[in-house]
Amino acid sequence: METETGHEEVISRNFIERIIDEDLAQGTHGGKVVTRFPPEPNGYLHIGHAKSICLNFGLAQQYGGVCHLRFDDTNPAKEEVEYIESIKRDIAWLGFTWDGYEFYASDYFEILHTIALKLIAEGKAYVDELSPEQVRTYRGTLKEPGVNSPYRDRSIEENLRLFSEMKDGKHAEGTLFLRAKIDMASPNLNMRDPSLYRIKHTMHHRTGDAWSIYPMYDFTHPLSDALEKITHSICTLEFEDHRPLYDWIVAASGLPDVPHQYEFARLNLNYTVMSKRLLLQLVKDGHVSGWDDPRMPTISGLRRRGYSPQAIRDFAGRIGVSKTNSVVDFALLDHCLREDLNTRARRVMAVIDPLKVVITNYPEDTTEYIEADNNPEDPSAGKRQIPFTRELYIEQDDFMENPPRKYFRLSPGREIRLKHAYYITCDEVIRAEDGSIIELRCTYDPDSRGGWTADERKVKGTSHWVSAVHALPAAVRLYDKLFTAEFPGEKTGNFLDDINPDSVRELSGCMVEPSLAQAVPGDYLQFMRTGYFCVDSVDSSPDALVFNRTIPLRDSWAKLKKKMGI
Ligand code: ATP
Ligand code: MG
Hints:
The protein has 14 helices and 27 strands. By secondary structure, the chain is an alpha/beta fold. The chain folds into three domains: 15-266, HUPs (Rossmann fold); 276-346 and 475-564, CATH 2.40.240.10; 350-464, CATH 2.40.240.10. A hairpin with a 5-residue loop joins strand 19 and strand 20. The longest helix is centred in the first third of the chain and has 16 residues, at 47-62. The structure holds adenosine-5'-triphosphate and magnesium ion. Adenosine-5'-triphosphate binds at residues 38-40, 48-49, 51-52, 235-236, 266-267, 274-276. The site of adenosine-5'-triphosphate (ATP) has 14 residues, from helix 3 and strand 8.
């Protein structure tokens, strides 16, 4: 990855790389690097997850190690299969592979249960029956120590019997639960006899109805790491306080490999929300069309919007890895995106808001093909032939009847260059009955093919265009941010209050060059002068093309918005 972006070299090694360097130098972990990415399959991955993916899979690549993909599926919930599939698709799309290293926490249910029995047998865990309110009261606060549960000193035999009954489904949800017996007076709240197992009479997508009890995340997670012999268990800062508990659990389990956990700052991005709970709410309440809505910060949303995996990886590399929480400006992601798309997008001509142009001195029934570079930044992208005919479309925006000073596009009597083609001069404006302009009559200079004249006449304006008979009708969707506030919900406490009512605008009646008939989702396109676009993977069809604008070239959004009155 470093060679592709060229940024890794200039960024000094992050603190995790320095730790790994040291471990390798000392021969710790037998010179191995095994990381993991452990998503909970309860939603689609978002740009924050991309940071963690790039870090974990990236380190494995960099050090010749492996990165496990582990689904933390300890909480049986609906639709997990859809989420699992989406997670795999997204990681693969980002450019990472996990080979055979695909794991499920649910695969460890049996062994986790055995470890729980061991803890009970050694007096390190007990079955409690306090109500959730009581648990809260007994736990104490940061200032006050907790109080021991009256059930804390049950006999080992009774604990084993009750735990077995829990497993056999003999108790209702929320009645009994298994707790670690650690220290109710610990200054670390996580150490105050945390819950290890709870009763849930719910089907699990992998284990079916085999279990009536499910292990808690804090119990499962460190043991999964230990079972998989993870050498560097990397997670976000909020789990720092859980580390003593994780270490306690792994030590109590007797498993030989004790992974070390390292915490880094999670990605926060302005003008967006990243919690899966909030993203799910946007989907469920219909504020967006789905998890892959092009306005969503999900990886599938970014993909459908036309982001490239390279841009996202570049972004992850540039934000770096640190131990201090901060907010990254969305503009950085935009910048990485533009920089990448500039190198990879095929340049095409598309007229968003068409105005007809008739070239009166050009023969009727003639089509001339003009060769154009697909990408001047990349000669290997090849060339294509663009049809030129007597009737064309240009942007409404590229003509003004009474232009102000410094307006260099077409106006009566003015000459401009048509990109890749000829110089044209506007002779006449044709109006509809209501006075609106419906057509321009122009003449072309036959000696200006390719955009240059023999006398090297200079014109200041260049317009893109399409041949009217060849152009394909299309709709385009222009996007703005999903939230108007930098920190959605900051003012009112409800993030929905900051939803941008104008975050998408669909314009129909656009005319695009015929080569776009072959464009498919995943192609990166630059509509000359209007932005980067892609084919919408859901709504576009050969008969009804729909393009999403990924991002304007610069700030053409503001300009178009003004013009469209939106
Ligand atoms: P959310 O709060 O959005 O529900 P989560 O942390 O509960 O996210 P998981 O599926 O548990 O979601 O996350 C999988 C991995 O991705 C974890 O290791 C987590 O640390 C990491 N991760 C999640 N969000 C971010 C983020 N914003 N920045 C960096 N890493 C993240
Ligand atoms: Mg989580």
